[in-house]
Every structure is written in C-alpha cells, then in structure tokens.
Design goal:
The protein is built from 15 helices and 13 strands. With 479 residues, the chain is α+β, with helices and mostly antiparallel strands. Bound molecules: adenosine monophosphate and magnesium ion. The site of adenosine monophosphate (AMP) has 15 residues, from loops.
Amino acid sequence: MKISQLKVTTPYLKLDLVFFDLVEPTPLKKPFLISASKDAAKLLGVDEDITKDEKLVEILNGTYKLEGSKTFSMCYAGHQFGYFVPRLGDGRAINLGKVNGQNLQLKGSGLTLYSRQGDGRAVLRSSIREYLMSEAMHGLGIATSRALALIGSETDVARERWEKGAIVLRISPTWVRFGTFEYFKAKGEHDKLQKLADYVIDESFAHIKNTEGMYAKMYEEIVRNTAITIAKWQSVGFNHGVMNTDNMSIEGRTIDYGPFAFLDDYEPNYVCNHTDAEGRYSFKNQPGNAHWNLQALALAISPIINHDRALKILEETYGPTYEEYYLNIMYEKMGLYEKDKKDIELFKWMLGSLESAVIDYTRFFRILSRYERDKKSILEMAVYQTPLSEWLDAYDKRLEKETLSAQERYARMLSVNPKYILKNHILQEAIEKAETSDFSMIEELLTVALSPFEEHKELEHLAKATPMSAKNIKLSCSS
Ligand code: AMP
Ligand code: MG
C-alpha cells in the first residue's frame, strides 16, 4: 500500500459544527521533501517506501487529497501559563482524516479560523525539531504523536528574522486536548461536553464504552496515562516547556513540541522555555504541572462527572501511579533489580550528588551501565567529584546484594539508558546545516532517534558531550 492510496474517514466531523471549522490548506511555494519516517508510515498500513511516493510532497502541501479526506481544524481553549484563554484552536494545523486508528494532521499549512494573530505557518527550524523529536520520543518508549514526513519550501515566514516555511505531517490516535473540554465548559455548552466525552471514549478508551460510570473511568484513564508519561519524561530528563492545558493530549501523549529540551547537566530547576520567566514549567515542576492541568480538566468535565468524585480519582490515582512508574524506571536505570527498602534513600542521594557534581544526566547513566567499580570512568565526567565519589562507594556496596551477573545487569541497563537523545546543540547543528540545504544530519538523527539504546558506531558524533557554552540553554518559543 502506498500512502497516496490511503482512504481516510473523518469521524470528528460527525460532531457538531461548533467543534471544528472546515478549511483548506494554503500550499507552500516550491515544496520539497526533506525526510520521511518509514517507521511511522507502518502505523498507517503503508508498506511501500513512502519517500518514493510521487504524491507525498503534494499530500503534505495540501494539493493532493487522500480519498475521503475533508480538511478541518479543531477548536479548543486552554490555560496558558495559568491564565484561561477561552478560544485557541488549531491556529496552524489542519486535519486530513483518519486511517488505521491514526488521525493525520498537517502543521504549518496556513491560516484557519483559529489563527488569531498568527500566520498559520511553521518555520523549518521548529518543524525539524518537532519531526525528529516525535520520532525520538517514540524511540524512547514514551507515548507521543508521531511524525510521518517533513517538507521545506521557498515561502518566506517572518519571525525574529526571515525564515522558510515548512510542514510536518503528524499522526496521533487522538488530537483531543484537555483544552477541548475546557472550551465547551467555558461556553456553558454541557451537552457538547458529553458528546465530546462520548467521542473520546470511542476514539481512545473503547474498552470502557457503555460500562457503568464510564465518564469517571475515562477521567481515571486520562489521569493514569498522564502520570505514566510524566514519569517517563522525568526519567529521561525531558523538559517540555509549554505544559498549557491546550498542549495536554487526552491520551496522555506528548504533543506540540516547542521549546523543549533534554537536561544536559542534571539541574532540576532548569527551564527550557525562554519566555517562561517565572519558571512555571521548569523540569522539576512538571509532575505538579500535570496535576494542576488534570485539576483544570476535572473542573471542565464537572457537568458530566461529579467534581468531588473526579478530584478523589485524581488524588487516588495520580501520585501513586507517578511514583510507581518513576521509581521503577529509575531503579532500572540504576541497575537495582532486587528490592531493598533503603533504595529510595540511595536514589535520592544519587540525585542530590548528581546535582552537586555538575554532570551530564544521560551520559552518567550510560557510563553507569558499564560500570565495573572503576569510579574514574564516572568521576572524570563531573566538575565536582567528591559528592559522587561518596555515593559510588554506597552504590558499590548495594550492588553486592544483586543476584544478576554483571553482564546481565549491563545488558538490562543499556536497554533503558539511552546513548542518543536529541540534545539541543545537536538539533541546532542539524538545523544550521538544513538552512544551507544540507539535510544529511536529519537522516542520521532520525536513525538514532528511533533506536537510541543501540551503539551506531558510525554515528558516535551524535552522542558527543555538550559544549560548555551550549549547556542547559533556554530556547525561544517563536516557531
Ligand atoms: P503552542 O503553545 O505553540 O502549541 O500554541 C498555542 C496556540 O497558538 C495554538 O492554538 C496554536 O495553534 C497557536 N499558534 C502558534 N503559532 C501559530 C502561528 N504561527 N499561526 C497561527 N496560530 C499559531
Ligand atoms: Mg499547542
């Protein structure tokens, strides 16, 4: 099956007209294919090489319509940095339809009813970031929207400087956001809230359909999925940067990649988003941010789920799920497989010493995955060695309680501690090359994004240490 042969449906359009706006994409000038993810294409049932499909560029540019496609943008509201905005919506995203349980969406394809002051465009720089990071998140085993392909163009787009427009074809089992519910709650349209909840259950939580208390169960699913995704973000050191309720997927997927970053040195107070002056969405605040957003969702759905009941679900589900997943992942990352009550202390001590030592979070765990009690291999990465050295003594003792052989432990640790993560300095290199029409690094990064735990001898340079000048820098939101 070729991508251009896909037949799509548009179940979202069965909802009322107030849920969406029918809109045509505005094509970019002189579009050209930059990259496509064959791995993501498999989700659609496409088994032929999509890069060879002569219609691919046209599909992304909106000039070739898939059979059954009706193009539309979705409305939603959202709490942005704590303040409620009653009407946002897909200001630069246009949906094409659904196939194989995946909703296809173009990002950067022109003005919609919801564009507000924006131009409906996405620049090459931010599109490369979204394209690669969606695939990398999947490679790390974290729920996310995926990216099928990326096109560039000759269309000029004004940001802090003139840049070129690009479009990413994103896919996700759902594009409903917490903010979609908030939109109808704010308008007092409670019948629409229920219709939306029914749609969400059909689309995302079919296993609870027509069961007793299904809306409460839906909320519980959302709480649990969100807690799991945030636990995974914290474990890999991912800072999303714009955790507004309109950027929170109803399935708990990571969506809307903007000024995101991975931690370089372990620094819990790190804030990747340059415009986030108060540090609301700092790395360490993310579990609390998600909880805040889930509270906002509980309020938004209060006309269909008793508010106290929803808050009870939140309190009983969120913290315990987050803790369970986060600690289990962290113990795996540390190579601790036997249960020991004192591990929690060893873990907290480790985080404290990583922070005082000033050391790269990802590289620390990768080196620890081959640690043979040769402290030097780890300490030479740290600016301050004493705190980590003392912790390693305790870690050495704790390892004695493990029953796995060292070789087995290394294998397990290497499968949870990525070698390759898409750090900003590497993405920046790829972007600068792409802006001179050299797209080679994007293909290299796609390879490591999809298999971050493997070695890739010929791509070692993509795992190099972050230069001092680029460590934990902040990024502009303009995209
Ligand atoms: P974000 O936080 O980046 O996901 O975007 C917040 C809101 O602004 C969403 O409703 C976007 O659709 C909208 N938006 C962002 N950039 C643009 C743009 N260039 N043109 C139109 N709308 C935009
Ligand atoms: Mg958004």
